[in-house]
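hey so u asked for the seq, here:
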Amino acid sequence: MSSRCGFVFVLAVLLVSCLAVVSAGEAQTPFSDHSFAIRFVTDQKQINYVADQFRGQLRRSGSNASVIACSNVAQVTEQGIAKDFSFGAVCNVQNGNDRLTVLMCDDSLAAKFTWRESGSLTREDVVRFIKRNCPPGR
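ran it, structure tokens below
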């Protein structure tokens, strides 16, 4: 009976060791190693859809700001996770008497919505903003 207990103990130690190695490997995987597919949205209906999604997210967050229009809309998808994607854009936002140009992104599947005032207006800035703040699959 004692050899059986010893075998179970060794098996348990090996299992815990394997889990620790796998977890450590996942924790050390740098974000930059992930491969992303990037698509710049040009269809006006889809651009309007993204702006509507941002309007809804602002309302749900309790903000008084309102999206007027968006440009440089990008969709970022993590390779291998086709169902999870994030949208981002440069948007003009009305907040009281102030009109701001902001970067916005949303990964609605993971409930990540972020917006910040920015002087960055290029499509590449939008993609960087998405990867930093609303990365798909994270």
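The chain has two domains: 1-33, 34-133. The two ends are 47 Å apart (CA to CA).
lmk if thats what u needed
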